[in-house]
Amino acid sequence: MQVVILPTAAEVGRIAAAKVASVIQRRPDAVLGLATGSSPLAIYADLAERVRSGALRVDAVRAFALDEYVGLPLDHPESYHSVIRRTVTKPVGLAPGLVHVPDGAAADLDAAAADYETAIRDAGGVDVQILGIGANGHIGFNEPTSSFASRTRIKTLAPRTRADNARFFASPDDVPRHCVTQGLGTILDARELVLVATGPAKADAVHAMVEGPLSSMCPGSALQLHPHAMVVVDEAAAARLE
Ligand code: F6R
Questions:
Q1: Ligand 1 atom closest to Cα of 36?
Q2: How far is the CA of 165 from the centre of ligand 1 (A)?
């Protein structure tokens, strides 16, 4: 695991975006893995700027989001379908037809999750997976105790995750209780991983992910198993690293 510690959150976004851009430059129809949440927003803003300035072309880029809430209509402003469209597809200029998000509104969620795995495989797999980490160590919505071999499936959100994400909803009770998420096994299949974390609230999770034992109690520690995992953090998120 390569750990890069930078002075500011802005630099974290810039360095992680440079990594993603280099993958796209090498392979114009690259398959990106997209995370939602606050952490990767600086990456998407940087990629959007590269596209605007003509330094990067993304017409052929394909993408698969990590996760989606269950129980929200797809057009709800906080569904990850909406969030990905608003924060990635539109500003970066990805072709909407090439951007995929798990279906959390499917009548048969198990079948939809299996179809998502097939779609990723049929695309040739993910070239570079962008990740954030939850304060409890989750990646995607793989909460503590998730199997390292897990694939896309329905999960129950941990109380801590629902509390952390309540900022996006009118009331904490409005945060969905379930989600569909790529599994840790799915994430580990990506050819490269780039995880970003900033701020003091992530310091414990970053410590457990980078220096803790490999443990399903910190799903992020699965990155220790990956040959090409890059963790980019600011000094606040790195505060507990030895
Ligand atoms: C969501 C996802 C989550 C977030 C994590 C951190 O797609 O993958 O694992 O990355 O909850 O969220 P933020 O960045 O909002 O602190």
A1: 7
A2: 9
Bridge partners, 99 (sequence order): 63
Residue 216 in domain: no
The number of domains in the chain is 1
Cα torsion 184, 187, 192, 193: sign: negative
pLDDT digits (tens, 9 = 90+) for 169-188: 999 999 999 999 999 999 99
Predicted ipTM of the assembly: 0.98
In sequence order, the 6+-apart residues with CB closer than 8 A to the CB of 239 are 200, 203
Residue 189 resides in a domain = yes
What pLDDT does residue 153 have? 98
**Domain extent at residue 77:** 2-132+147-196+224-233
- Give the Cβ contact number of residue 147 at 10 Å: 14
* pLDDT one-digit tens code per residue, 30-68: 999 999 999 999 999 999 999 999 999 999 999 999 999
Domain containing residue 124: CATH number: 3.40.50.1360
Residue bearing the CA closest to ligand 1, atom 15: 37
pLDDT at residue 57, rounded to an integer? 98
Q: Is 137 a pocket residue for ligand 1 (Cβ < 6 Å)? A: no
Cα-to-chain-centroid distance, residue 159: 20
